[in-house]
Amino acid sequence: xxxxxxxxxxxxxxxxxxxxxxxxxxxxxxxxxxxxELMLNAANLSLVAFSRFNVGPDGLPNFNxxxxxxxxxxxxxxxxxxxxxxxxxxxRARQTTNVEDISSMKF
Amino acid sequence: xxxxxxxxxSLLMLGFGVSVVVNRNPVASALSLVSSFLCLxxxxxxxxxxxxGAIQVIVYAGAVMVLFLFIIMLLDLRAEERRKFNKVAFFxxxxxxxxxxxxxxxxLGKHPRGDKPFPAxxxxxxxQLNDLKHVGETLFTSHNLPFQVVGVLILVATIGVIVxxxxxxx
Lengths: 107, 170
Hints:
The structure holds two protein chains of two kinds.
Chain A: H1 5-25, H2 29-53, H3 63-94
Helix pairs in contact in A: 1-2, 2-3
Chain B: H1 3-22, H2 26-46, H3 50-75, H4 87-109, H5 131-141, H6 144-166
């Protein structure tokens, strides 16, 4: 059995679904944040699979997609830093990481 | 990529992904996330994206996960106690996720363009794919402005993190 693009897209979609389900089902804000990272990585996997699938006339993969993955990883790293700083500030103010306890807009 | 290796790493990655969601202990979730990212890096290497696989290990499995574990231990989070189980939210969320997966499988089943094997790379004889060189060339020639903007973004994020953590919330 040979691997096709659809195999990679299926695995990437399932990883995205797992992250999506985690965001919907879990109540701990740090776990929700980890599940966001899972969804970003699912997008990265499909981008790299498309890059390898579209071999150009020079016989090389399409490197534009890999540059986009590079940008996604960079932005995700910045996002994690800011998000975790917000979570720490939130924890100092409310002593909780459960999203059900953080329902008021102003405190 | 060898199909056996593909299935091995995909199933490991999805399994660890599920374990991120179902673990009650945040440290166990974070460690499952590292394992999931390492399997994903193996899939990248199987797709001839060696550079992306390397930065996946360095940035995600290294830097980001250290940050996550550091915050979990700083906040001293224990395994969350069992709360009142919100049935409607649980089944509603599960239903939405399952419907999403079903849609996705349906769409991929009717996607004949993707149902072809990966074309072989056309490299000069005796040469390995030098993907770092090509990614670097693409990055610094056709995507130079976004690259500079990302540099500014990281600077802004650094300053923002310092401001957020310095301010006394009353």
